[in-house]
Amino acid sequence: MESFERGREKLEDLLGWVNDHGSDLDRNEAQTRLDLINRIVFECLGWAPEQCRVEKRKEGTYSDYELRVPIPFLLLEAKRESIGFELPAGFTDGDCQLSTVLVLGNDVQEAITQALSYCQSRGIGLGAICNGHQLVAFLANREDGVAPLSGRAVVFPSLEIVQQRFVEFWDFFSAPGLQSGALKRQLARGSASLPPERLSQRIQGYASFVSRNAFQVDLQELGGFLIQDIPAADELADEFLRECYE
Asked: Which pTM was predicted?
């Protein structure tokens, strides 16, 4: 709780600084990172420098922030303050379809597409963009048959909203929050759930069937006639797994 309380205090300090200095749409990306995004990541959310990789190079591209605990959980792309958006009148929800954000401006669409591409080339599941005042996060790699750009987004349209929803903001983007899976669960809300994998698939060298003697073979054939291989039926596999693990 100490880190959470300190983060909330640091956010109040940042809001005071922004109120004193105002928004500066002439800030380039580097200045936006220095003045705002670094403070959000390292002070308000409490990330330690050793938990973050900046300007990580891969295949000629550079990611701005890769937040790791210890593997990369979230790729955050920084954008200058002028790359922002205005949400539709009456929008009050904390999340929406990602397509809702994509139509708010070509610069925002380009920024999200870039972050998505970086996530997919690096194998990072969660992506986000931030301009120092606004933050949009999304699932970049999925296994539920939903295209990432057709999924949902978590949206914080201003630092004032971050302050109002700081518990949620902390749960989604701090190191302990990301480890808890709160953001991933929120973004996957409403998608079809997949049956869990068999535990045997996680065990290297898991025991398989041994050679049977003649008596055992006869019993297996007799069992096949009686129950018709019900346990191996593909159409029952999902139901079997859910009944076992739910």
From this structure: 0.74
